[in-house]
Amino acid sequence: MKRYCLLLSLLFLLSCNYYTWAYNHAEWILSWKLHHYLDLTAKQKPLAQAQMNTLANWHRSSQLPKLKKAVRRARKYLRQKKYAPGVKESIAAYKNLRDNLYQGFIQALVPILMELNPQQIDHLQEILEEENQEIRESLDDPAPERLAKRVAGFKSTLEDWLGDLSGQQNKMVEELFLRLPELKPLRLRYRKEQQAHFFAALRQKPEINALGGRLLKIWVQRPPQDPYGRALIQSSKTYEIFLIHLLKTTSPQQRSHLLKKMETLEKDLHSLLI
User: Fold this and answer.
1) What is the structure's pLDDT at 174?
2) Rounded distance between C-alpha atoms, residue 65 and residue 235, angstroms
3) 27, 80, 96, 134: most buried by Cβ count inside 10 Å?
4) pLDDT value for 17
5) Is the pLDDT of residue 50 over 70?
6) What is the dihedral of CA 211, 190, 98, 165, to 10 degrees?
7) Where are the alpha helices (DSSP H) in the chain?
């Protein structure tokens, strides 16, 4: 469910008609995915729909204005070529908006989870284990092949925002991924551990606040001493430094391309507020 919750926060990173459409239909998409994961009964579906409607309305009224403001400030920093403060503030804003989204989603989700019967809990556990198996199978690919895929995917994202990368910039990306740890094995281990704790708690029918607290710990309050939590923190710092250096190498054409993309994103966000 986590990745579908993130559908909303992807608007911070991508701007196109599909994501605008998806946001305008977020409550329907999320309700549909909840049914996929939870196999909701006819009696439970109205509750799920009402909770997702509340979530969507909350996000549109309280979070989208903050998102639009963050994009506008990022554009201002870019025009002024103040790359370091722009990147730092944008990353901080994104993390805050992401965590707010998780917390809002958890608040909407927990009353639905409290209504699940044992068969539905088994259904959810089976689906999550299938996802874990997909991750395990992807790790069977040779390490150099996995690295090449990560590099290619990141370059594709950068080219979408900047246009064609220079030879120097391509080399910077390749060197970046040689320094970064591969997060997928750590994430898989973390997922399995937290899922075990979560299902043990869910089957004991905990108080609603206790269940919400468990989900907050999984999605928002990752312990920094955990290997996955440490790797995320270190990777975030590495990406931040990389982006600052990368922006310093951009050409006038690349900055113009980026500014136009950000302007389009801001306009899309404004249209979602109307």
Assistant:
1) 97
2) 28
3) 27
4) 58
5) yes
6) -170
7) 2-9, 17-24, 26-38, 45-58, 64-79, 83-113, 118-138, 143-162, 167-179, 183-203, 208-219, 227-248, 252-273
Cα–Cα dist 244/35, whole Å: 42
Q: What's the chain's length in residues?
A: 274
List Cα–Cα distances, 39 to 3, 23, 42, 245, in angstroms.
18, 23, 10, 48
Type of residue found at 138: S
Each residue of 142-180: b (16+ CB within 10 Å) or e?
A: eeeeebeebbeebbeebeeebbebeeebeebbeebbeeb
What gap in Å lies between CA 69 and CA 132, rounded to an integer? Answer: 37
| Tokens matching residue 131 | 């996802």
Q: Give whole-number Cα distances, 60 to 24, 101, 106, 210, in Å.
A: 9, 11, 17, 27
The whole-angstrom separation of Cα 241 and Cα 92 is 14
For 67, the token pair is: 């998102």
What whole-number distance in Å separates Cα of residue 214 and Cα of residue 211?
5
What distance in Å separates the CA atoms of residue 269 and residue 274, rounded to the nearest whole number?
9
Query: Predicted confidence band at 6 (pLDDT cuts at 50, 70, 90)?
Result: very low
Question: Minimum mean pLDDT among 177-191, 209-223, 232-246: which range?
Answer: 209-223
Instruction: Give the pLDDT of residue 105.
Output: 93
Cα separation of 106 and 113, whole Å? 10
Residue written as tokens 């064609």?
164
